[in-house]
Design brief:
alpha+beta, five-stranded antiparallel beta sheet, six-stranded mixed beta sheet, 498 residues, single chain
């Protein structure tokens, strides 16, 4: 263990005041807020992004000069990422003794009992209403799907949210949404450009993680990576939603974190007439909101909306999902069906690897030492695509089985087909027998049954807490039938190319 560590000096707006402080390399925003700054309204419960009790609002200036807020789980948010942001906690919403409208309506509708989950619910609703002029009940449910409450049964919380949606849909109501500190925060962030600092200090707490790097260019990143010789000497952070669960729950502390979120080239989503390129640090929220992705890859948007909660999607990345190599990853299964390629980059150059050749074994990939996924490349094709997820809960749950398909039809005959499955093997992968079988076929009940049986025979699922092997085999069949039945309906309605 090193005798010294390098702390980061960060400066940010916290509610209505400017804060500048030194933070430890592996410290979370939740720890800073509660333990050092003594703002204990933000609660700690699960420490893995499942409950929402620690949700806070993070505001930053976008490319158009607008201050935009997103709800994040502070238990998974590195303190270094608070730098040059407006951090709003539940303590910062009320105006003196006058409650904020969200607090007041929750109180009036009996939407709080023990109160432990309430701060996270309040901050999540605040962020939702800053980005929605109007809200349907389903949109409110989606916004709150990452906030657990063990007391109220949710009905009173949803009732309060519906009243608030109507309140904030008017100009006067919207004016009451933002606390006074927001204007001051916008001025501060626009007028002050402060570099994050670093400060070597004694490691008197005997911390295992001693450095946190934030390179701002690709060249800086690879110069830094080339100083390491072993993969276990550092961890790359894109979203950090997996890595900080390992840190919080499994107590895994790498010697060094390398945060690649500040590299502009890795953040872009670009497209042309033949393909789309999704940068490595593009979040699920950015993918979902991107009009180009919505137009050409609606199935990917569907898969992305099933990932985690709104707080997770605001931070987590699709490339990180792929690199983590989970056999049940929703985003990865969609990419397999869509015939994605991965741009892998190191100081030695760039190489392109098809995603169906990327996963070698359980949690083992084709990534070489000091190589990163820099982008995901998707070919634009017309045809039918679909994603299905089977899990015990509707939201914020890991799949028992997930699947995706991409099928092209000419006339009444299938000319290409790709079925991908997760949760039924040690890696997410294509089912080649069922995919190849469909080519040249017309869809009939017999063809669908044969295709489903070929998919079942292609896998030997395991039994675990999320389902038995027999149950998973049944799900494989059901997924294939659902995919192809939906395709039949699309062909009949003339929408198979959407």
């Amino acid at each position: 263990m090193n005798d010294s560590i390098t702390q980061q000096t960060i400066t940010f707006m916290l509610n209505d005041r400017v804060v500048s402080c030194d933070v430890n390399p592996d410290e979370t925003s939740l720890e800073l807020l509660r333990d050092k700054l003594r703002l204990t309204g933000t609660k700690e419960v699960c420490s893995e992004g499942d409950c929402g009790a620690c949700a806070i609002a993070v505001g930053e200036i976008d490319s158009t000069g607008v201050l935009r807020y997103r709800a994040i789980n502070s238990c998974l948010f590195p303190t270094a990422r608070m730098h040059q942001k407006h951090i709003l906690t539940v303590e910062g919403l009320a105006a003196g003794t006058q409650l904020h409208p969200i607090q007041q309506i929750l109180l009036e509708q009996h939407g709080t009992q023990c109160g432990y989950c309430t701060p996270g619910i309040i901050m999540t609703l605040f962020c939702h209403f800053t980005t929605h002029e109007t809200s349907t009940v389903e949109e409110l449910k989606t916004a709150l799907e990452g906030n657990l409450c063990r007391c109220t049964g949710y009905r009173s919380i949803l009732a309060a949210a519906e009243i608030l949606a109507e309140t904030f849909s008017t100009f006067d109501g919207k004016e009451n949404l933002y606390p006074r500190s927001c204007d001051a925060a916008k001025s501060f962030l626009l007028d002050n450009h402060i570099d994050i600092g670093s400060k070597p200090t004694s490691n008197h707490e005997q911390r295992s993680t001693t450095d946190y790097h934030t390179p701002e260019t690709i060249n800086d990143l690879f110069k830094l990576l080339d100083t390491f010789s072993k993969p276990d000497e550092f961890r790359l952070i894109a979203g950090g939603t997996d890595i900080y669960v390992e840190r919080n729950v499994q107590r895994r502390f790498p010697a060094c974190f390398i945060d690649i979120d500040k590299i502009p080239e890795l953040k872009r989503i670009t497209g042309n007439g033949t393909e789309i390129r999704i940068g490595a640090t593009s979040t699920y929220r950015e993918i979902i909101d991107n009009t180009f992705v919505q137009t050409h890859f609606p199935m990917l948007v569907t898969a992305a909306t099933w990932v985690g909660s709104s707080q997770i999607r605001n931070v987590a990345t699709l490339a990180g999902n792929v690199a983590h190599a989970s056999p049940i990853a929703d985003g990865t299964v969609a990419l397999l069906a869509l015939d994605a390629k991965l741009e892998l980059r190191s100081s030695n150059g760039i190489r392109i690897v098809k995603i169906d050749q990327f996963f070698l074994d359980y949690r083992k990939t084709a990534l070489q030492l000091l190589e990163i996924i820099s982008a995901i490349i998707l070919p634009i094709k017309t045809g039918f695509s679909n994603f299905i997820k089977s899990s015990k809960r509707i939201a914020v749950d890991i799949s028992s089985v997930n699947s995706a398909c991409s099928i092209q039809i000419e006339g009444s005959s299938i000319i290409s087909s790709r079925f991908a499955f997760g949760g039924v093997d040690k890696i997410p992968r294509l089912s080649l027998p069922s995919s190849e079988f469909l080519v040249g076929k017309n869809l009939t009940t017999e063809v669908i049954d044969q295709c489903a049986q070929l998919a079942i025979d292609d896998f030997t699922p395991m039994t675990d807490i999320r389902g038995s092997a027999e149950y998973r085999s049944i799900l494989i069949r059901n997924h294939v039938v659902q995919h192809l039945t939906k395709l039949q309906e699309a062909v009949l309605s003339g929408k198979e190319s959407k």
